[in-house]
Fold each of these.
Amino acid sequence: MPRFWSPDTRFRTFAWIVVIALTVLLGAVSARWLGDAPPPNKIVMATGQAGGVYDSFGREYAKRLSTQGLRVELVNTAGSVDNFRRIIAGKVDIAFAQSGTYQVVTDLEHKVSGLAAIYYEPLWIFVRRGIRIEDKIPYRPGTVSLGPKGSGTEAVAKDILAEEGYDVASPAIVNLPSVDARRELIAGKLDVAFFVTSYRDPGIIELMRHKDLRLTSFRREVAYTRKFRGLTPVKIPEGLLDLKDNIPAENITLLSPSALLVARDTINPRLVELLLKVAQAVHGPGDLLDPPLKFPSLEGVDVPINEAAETYLTSGESFLSRNLPYRALRWVLLLKLLLLPLLAVWLPLLRLAPLIASWRKGRWLKRYYARLRDVEGKLATARWPNELRDGINELESLRGEVQAVSRKLPLQQQQDIYHWRLHVQLILNEALERLGRMEAATVR
């Protein structure tokens, strides 16, 4: 450390510290404020229950994103509400969620942003034959499953039951995962079970094939959708899901939230574009319930819309995302962050370096000429030989000091050193002549 902070190197060390600090600061500022920070190479995505549709879509997204150079860590959760809470807590970056459930969580700092609605996710209410939701019968304890705690299923089921006049704190209410609810419904242990999932869920078809169970069709869908803005009527014509076995056996009207893709509000805009491109590839073709080219869409998103997502879905992707693959895009933006400090700090510094060097040279020379002047003053006022000898010794010492320093100076500054040495020699010659005269006068 003393070597780097010696009087000779102190200025140079301090200058390097300042320049490096400015470079890092400008890189951080550009990453924070210019919106063009390099996108990540890894994200954490919250899906849903293991084996569910969110889990299935999560694996599909992860596979497609990995081909673009983005690693995805999938996390199984209880469902939509749980996913919102994980985003707010900063535990995940991306998540699937269900419209109509964001209002259940507390997001005072608005950390959640909506990217798009990606498909209809109907509410399926299966009941035992002879039971109707509208009848408001007193259910046995533990016979009405609303889905796991923290799930979107639980949130929408409670809203509908409360509107129908049921006590959502009744002993009849239980919270079972989809697999357990399906098993106990088939076994006759449950009277009612709510599921919010895609028709692709094999468990839904299994329940529709069961003769002792009935899928609830909403006759008053207009009333429900006006009371619950997050729900959309979805009609399933007779035989749509299985023509051979005629499933469903009659026309059915379901209420459907939209499945959403949501993220942290700090998500990188380039990552948003990549996610929405994947969403278009996965959901754009449509299916039995979703019209082609309907999704991804901003319609049905009841979460604050992410600005980059809104721009992408209304105006298209950015120039960089359109012309560069994600892997190259990361390196281009990284290079941009490196070039900005280079242009803002290093190039001006290189232009100023000669001026700074000239200023330092002048300052350095002034300091030694000031010392030379002090010694010359002492020699001029000396009255005795001993005083002259002390001044001459001090002059020799100063000359030796400058000679040692001169070895470290660049060639362009050696001319100044030679000039300084000539001036030293001039003063030294005058002092020696005067000393000689004093000694000669003393001998006489």
Amino acid sequence: MAEFMTVANERGSNEANPAHSMLAEGGSFLLSGNGVLHHLGFVVKSISDVAEEFAASISASWDGEITYDPIQRVRVSFFGPVDQRNPVFELVEPAGDDSPVINFLKKGGGLHHVCYEIDDLEQGLQEARLAGLMTVALPAPAVAFGGRRIAWICSKRRLLVELLERNKR
């Protein structure tokens, strides 16, 4: 990250706050260093139909739990990596015809989003906006995360990112 800040400074950025300058120029977000990859989400028609094969194909363990989230209008299930250096995977299934993932599924489903766990959701959203990303869903509690809030942002190239608020201590 230091080399990116150097490049930003060479372009005449504010020396006192190079991270802010990068954001204003449409650079990266989550520069505060608190964003950690939490999981990769895949949209499928039926979690129960594909879960065992999915777990085997990515060398992950699955506890068989499927969580219904009426707020997000989806069912989700998490797959823990055998090697803890790898990310968690999430399967997402629409919970009805009004689910926000139904159109994605109609196009074939598959890799849908990346999720970062962050300390401050509002700060993360502000950084994302400054970096040119668009907020597509404001903070809301998520059943799968014990009520912790999530928000959704999207890049100009249509990369969907979920932000998960870390437990406040």
Amino acid sequence: MYTRADMRFRTGPPARVAAAIAVLAMTACPLVSLAATAEEARAFSERAAAHIKAVEEAKAFADFTRPDGGFVDGELYVFCYDRKGMNMAHGGNRSFVGRNLLHIKDPDGIEPNALIVKMGFEHERGWVDFKWPNPVTKRIENKSAYVIHTNDVVCGVGYYKG
């Protein structure tokens, strides 16, 4: 059992400094841990490709697009395009599904979806860099997506480089 004197000692200057450091550490670390990594994006993309093979495209696309489908996690989400640039699934913005987004340009005039389709259909898999709106921060940020050609589509998952 602690007395009032013990409690005063524990809340003295050294304890206050330690508490301040702990609060700073707790506020800084979650910000870092919220950002996805390249490894997480690649693993998420691999899991999406396996899901397509396991349940077929129609069910997989529905799962990828639904927020509760198991393929949306903060800034990580799955997107899929056919060879012509038709969006088949999009966990970040369901209004994209069924639209041809091949020639959408990022702020630098780059057509990221054309690069994604080209990477997947010509090289089977790989990384594509571009700028895209972050659904968490609502800002346009540098993004790198790992894409995989699976069946008749290219699907990918990207992470924001900050």
Amino acid sequence: MKTFARKCSLILLLAGGWPVLSGTLLADDTNAPKTKLEAFEAQTGVTIVKGSVLIGSVNAQNGVVSIRCKESKDAGTDRKEFGLAIEVREGEGLAETTVIDYDELDSFLNAIDYISKVDYRVTTLPFFDVIYTTKGGLRIAAYSSTRSPGTIQAVLHSNHITNTRVLMSPQQVARFQSLIQESKTKLDSLRTGK
């Protein structure tokens, strides 16, 4: 009878622990690297050299956005990955950093260009959102304001950990686009060794 009770206890323990275990497994999966650069830097058993340079910052309406070029290298093989680290700081709160792979930059620049030029002709309906999201979760958007009808607002949103967002004027979006283009030019020169 004791053996049966022990088996039942073990089954109940496993059944009761499964939701906790499966929740942990799901949580670990959501923390998996989303970009090639993040996966490259997360390697274990390998010496990684990480270099970066601040290209510039944009003072947004309610925060600051900073753009860094990144170059990471496997010291043993000299294999490299390149990208950007975009830091979004809302007000005096914590900063949130999202990584963008080099191979996403052309698409990202095209999206910023489109978003910077969007107007009410984008749809026949009175309200709209135009959104582009990178693999790492950085979102740039333009939307028609419901609080100020006739106004189009731009927002840069990082949802990596703390759901940070900053509002940007058309001039701030143009400055951000310029810094992303400057960053891509810098990475192009690093990749070609010039």
